[in-house]
């Protein structure tokens, strides 16, 4: 390789002033020229560095203009070409496993083999760099015409300076051991141990004037250079071989021998694949293959075409099958053994990564008529461009042709036989003619435009989830704009704040609020106490927003809430959480929880009163542990409620019924259980003992009668639930889109529901078809309704309006009696049943409730003496509606007249609504009384705005779904009659 001597040495133009000696003829050369290329930029710059890749079949070249080019294989196909410096020439190149490092005068460039630059290292210590040496995979050693060596850590990019006594370092070579030979430009060679490189182990003068090149293999060191003569500096016509093991003693310079060459050598390199063989190249292009250990052996000599210039650099492949020479004229020459035309650079080279080839277009003759032109891919167009043959999108969509309407003559003469109609052919069109409408392109485009017009009602801003950012250093004007009513709101910054809407509903329900404010107990985590504390805080806040921190903390400790999935994680709530089902489960849970906490508090107070009034010798008073547990709010074992059940979607299943105090009576010989007066009175007394203010407000008493259709055996049980869950009709039998009567019919069917299902009969000793029927015994002052809407079928109920009632003549035989009679369990059956009132009787005539999308503001519920209910959505006292309804008796062919037993008028007082936004949100409509005026308000955490009545009861928009409804009784019930036979 070419070395650039500093100013302290002789001028470089005198280094080539030598007389070529006479060339001794030898045998034919072992290597011959295989390829030669003019490198990139070779017309202006000469080759300054060349190296074979140690991992791939590549040759790397750097020129005097700072450009690097790589060539692949013996054919020297150009692989990559890139610029590493604007002006400085490339001094040295080394290749590592993942990249290459290129050294210039003042920089070290880290580059991928594909040409992508990774890093450029610059340092004030790099002034005139000359050579590179790879110590290991993470360390490089750099030398140059300066008084220091640079040890660079490639991982940390940290330099370690090694001072040297020699006048620079122009060559760095190693023979495989830990010793590295450092050759300076003034002819001095120093051997350094890389384990302790700060001090040279051996230093000697190899040449009297200048050093040209050196190389090491094992313990042998080759040098060539210049000597001082009478006429000036001349090149020595020989190389000097040094044995490193003999470089000890007082005169180490005497430990070498010389080998004469045909031309004064300037470049040296050992052949890695052979022991003791080296290559010596002169400036005029003569190359000699030497036997280092046998100087008398004849040399193999060949000539490199230098194009009348000087040979600058040389490198040998690791397999010794290829030699590369670069000259001043910009040519790179590749030599290989005479018989080896496909040399390889490494024994185990990995495959080189090439760019994906560009597929060219196929060649087709002009006369070829069978060529498929669709097989030629179209080129990419600019953004927004279109091909001339591109069709409109509607031609790529499957659209069925619209059939013509049926001829009115056919409809006029048609006779129906079941679902099939027969009519004579009017012969108005030809045989096998397709009766489709002919549409033009203009009509299709107009229909498409009209069909794409989807009217989506936007969600009002005050219904959306609030994203509030509090200002700690100034007034929060945004909060003041949300609430201008003066009523306190609830913040939603804590986990499980989804229940804020229901907390507001309970707060604005006066009987519930009074009950919770009056409740006190010693239990550590009592939800009733925390609700009372929260309501007290809302009363005294003066309109300032509050937080339900204590309540939510106590709520997380209730194991039943965790078992029901009511506790959300502390992280951001998952968008997949179904808030509709969650808030309804929370409503059932909180009513049952408050009821049991009040009930257990009363039981504990009674036990404490008994302990206080009992004599001192009583066992309960003498048990200090039990008295201590009672005084500290821990309930005794017999007071813990272990039968806490909640009302599920199916009210007939006793395990999902949510009943508070179940009682069971069995009939004998087909006689109904209600005739057992003593058992009924016992159950009433038991229920009266377990009554609380919550059960008195929300409890719905009902009796479930199970009748076997095989043996007619009846079994009954009484229960009480705190929330009524709407039972939607099944699909195909007055389903979601076919239910008649709307919301009123749903409430009626849910309060006194019936169905037919297989059940176990003790009398028959097997599963038999059983009719299950619920009869209402008690109407609550506050009717809590869970609207469901969880499944797709239930959501479709609120998304579609119900059809208007049709007359019996248009229903296709609805006037016929049902074949199953009293045992029919099909909801929405179109046939007549003697035990059911007609739709016109169960709902008022001309009712405004013609759609599922509207809630009635008032409900008039009439409880019949037989447990059935009649509900009207507005108050009418016509004699036709209040007249008794005749119902046939179910046994002994006796008739009894069923009259109205209790009548109660309910008004809508609160509603919790789910806003189908992203994310979903829960808001509450509450009917409040302020200064003697009634007004509806919408509560969305901190946002409280007044709303109209129509906005509360209409649910025709796509983004609003009802979840929980509270209907409050406006007056006491009245008894109009009894059962008479």
UniProtKB/TrEMBL annotation:
InterPro entries with a match to the protein in the record: PAN2-PAN3_catalytic_subunit, PAN2_N, PAN2_UCH_dom, Papain-like_cys_pep_sf, USP, WD40/YVTN_repeat-like_dom_sf, WD40_repeat_dom_sf
Highest taxon in the source lineage: Eukaryota
GO biological process, alphabetically ordered: nuclear-transcribed mRNA poly(A) tail shortening
Pfam family, one: UCH_1
SUPFAM superfamilies: Cysteine proteinases, WD40 repeat-like
Gene Ontology molecular-function annotations: poly(A)-specific ribonuclease activity
GO cellular component: P-body; PAN complex
Domain USP: 488-970
UniProt name for this protein: USP domain-containing protein
Organism name: Bombyx mori
Species lineage: Eukaryota, Metazoa, Ecdysozoa, Arthropoda, Hexapoda
């Amino acid at each position: 390789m070419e070395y650039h001597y500093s100013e302290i040495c002789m001028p470089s133009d005198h280094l080539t002033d030598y007389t070529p000696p006479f060339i001794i003829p030898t045998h034919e050369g072992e290597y011959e020229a295989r390829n030669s290329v003019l490198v990139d930029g070779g017309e202006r710059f000469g080759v300054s560095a060349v190296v074979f890749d140690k991992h791939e079949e590549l040759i790397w070249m750097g020129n005097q203009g700072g450009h690097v080019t790589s060539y692949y294989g013996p054919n020297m196909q150009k692989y990559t070409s890139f610029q590493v410096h604007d002006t400085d020439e490339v001094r040295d190149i080394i290749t590592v496993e993942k990249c290459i490092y290129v050294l210039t005068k003042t920089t070290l460039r880290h580059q991928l083999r594909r040409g992508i630059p990774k890093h450029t290292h610059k340092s004030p210590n790099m002034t005139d760099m000359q050579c590179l040496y790879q110590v290991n995979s993470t360390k490089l050693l750099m030398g140059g015409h300066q008084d220091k060596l640079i040890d660079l850590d490639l991982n940390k990019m940290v330099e370690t300076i090694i001072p040297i006594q020699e006048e620079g370092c122009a060559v760095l070579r190693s023979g495989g051991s830990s010793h590295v030979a450092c050759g300076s430009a003034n002819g001095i060679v120093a051997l350094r141990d890389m384990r302790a490189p700060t001090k040279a182990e051996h230093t000697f003068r190899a040449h009297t004037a200048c050093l040209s090149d050196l190389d090491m293999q094992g313990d042998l060191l080759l040098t060539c250079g210049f000597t001082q003569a009478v006429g000036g500096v001349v090149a020595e016509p020989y190389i000097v071989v040094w044995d490193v093991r003999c470089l000890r003693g007082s005169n180490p310079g005497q430990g070498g021998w010389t080998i004469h060459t045909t031309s004064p050598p300037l470049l040296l390199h050992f052949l890695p694949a052979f022991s003791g063989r080296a290559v010596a190249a002169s400036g005029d292009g003569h190359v000699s293959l030497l036997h280092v250990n046998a100087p008398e052996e004849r040399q193999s000599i060949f000539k490199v075409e230098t194009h009348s210039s000087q040979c600058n650099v040389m490198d040998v492949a690791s397999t010794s099958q290829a030699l590369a020479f670069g000259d001043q004229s910009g040519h790179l020459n590749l030599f290989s053994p005479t018989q080896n035309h496909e040399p390889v650079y490494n024994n185990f080279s990995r495959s080189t990564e090439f760019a994906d080839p560009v597929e060219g277009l196929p060649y087709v003759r002009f006369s070829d008529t069978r060529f498929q032109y669709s097989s030629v891919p179209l080129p990419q167009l600019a953004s927004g461009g279109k091909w001339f043959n591109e069709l409109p999108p509607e031609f790529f969509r499957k659209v069925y042709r619209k059939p013509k309407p049926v001829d009115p003559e056919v409809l006029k003469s048609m006779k129906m036989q079941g679902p099939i109609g027969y009519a004579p052919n009017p012969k108005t069109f030809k045989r096998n003619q397709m009766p489709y409408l002919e549409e033009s392109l203009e009509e299709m485009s107009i229909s498409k435009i009209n069909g794409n017009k989807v009217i989506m009602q936007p969600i009002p801003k005050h219904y959306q989830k609030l994203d509030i950012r509090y200002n700690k250093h100034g007034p929060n004007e945004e909060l003041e704009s949300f609430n201008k009513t003066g009523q306190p709101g609830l913040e939603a910054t804590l986990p499980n704040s989804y229940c804020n809407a229901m907390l507001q509903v309970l707060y604005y329900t006066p009987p519930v609020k009074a009950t919770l404010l009056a409740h006190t107990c010693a239990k550590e985590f009592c939800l009733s106490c925390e609700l009372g504390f929260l309501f007290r805080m809302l009363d005294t806040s003066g309109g300032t927003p509050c937080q339900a921190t204590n309540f939510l903390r106590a709520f997380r400790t209730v194991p039943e809430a965790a078992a029901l999935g009511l506790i959300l994680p502390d992280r951001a709530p998952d968008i997949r959480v179904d808030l509709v089902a969650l808030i309804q489960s929370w409503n059932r849970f909180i009513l049952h929880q408050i009821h049991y906490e009040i009930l257990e508090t009363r039981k504990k107070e009674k036990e404490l009163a008994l302990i206080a009034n009992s004599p001192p010798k009583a066992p309960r008073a003498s048990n200090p542990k039990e008295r201590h547990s009672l005084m500290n709010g821990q309930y005794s074992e017999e007071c813990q409620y272990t039968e806490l059940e909640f009302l599920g979607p199916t009210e007939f299943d006793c395990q999902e019924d949510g009943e508070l105090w179940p009682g069971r009576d069995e009939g004998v010989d087909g006689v109904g259980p209600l005739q057992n007066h003593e058992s009924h009175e016992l159950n009433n007394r038991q229920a009266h003992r377990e009554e609380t203010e919550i059960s008195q407000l929300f409890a719905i008493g009902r009796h479930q009668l199970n009748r076997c259709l095989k043996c007619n055996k009846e079994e009954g049980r009484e229960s009480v639930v705190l929330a009524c869950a709407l039972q939607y009709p099944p699909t195909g039998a007055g389903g979601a889109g076919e239910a008649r009567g709307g919301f009123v019919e749903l409430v009626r069917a849910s309060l006194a529901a019936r169905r037919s299902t297989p059940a176990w009969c003790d009398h028959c000793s097997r599963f038999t078809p059983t009719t299950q029927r619920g009869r209402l015994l008690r109407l609550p002052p506050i009717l809590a309704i869970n609207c469901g809407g969880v499944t797709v079928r239930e959501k479709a109920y609120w998304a579609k309006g119900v059809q208007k009632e049709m007359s019996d003549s248009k229903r296709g035989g609805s006037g016929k009696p049902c074949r199953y009679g009293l045992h029919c369990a099909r909801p929405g059956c179109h046939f007549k049943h003697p035990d059911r009132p007609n739709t016109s009787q169960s709902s008022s005539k001309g009712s405004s409730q013609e759609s599922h999308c509207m809630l009635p503001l008032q409900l008039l519920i009439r409880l019949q003496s037989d447990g059935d209910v009649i509900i009207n959505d507005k108050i009418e006292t016509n004699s036709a509606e209040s007249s008794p309804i005749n119902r046939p008796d179910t046994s002994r062919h006796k008739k009894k007249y069923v009259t109205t037993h209790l009548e109660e008028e309910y008004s809508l007082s609160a509603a919790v609504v789910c806003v189908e936004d992203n994310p979903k949100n829960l808001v509450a409509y509450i009917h409040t009384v302020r200064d003697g005026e009634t007004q509806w308000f919408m509560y969305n955490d901190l946002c409280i705005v007044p709303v109209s009545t129509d906005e509360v009861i209409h649910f025709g928009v796509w983004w609003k779904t009802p979840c929980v409804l509270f209907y409050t009784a406006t007056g006491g019930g009245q008894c109009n009659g009894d059962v008479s036979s």
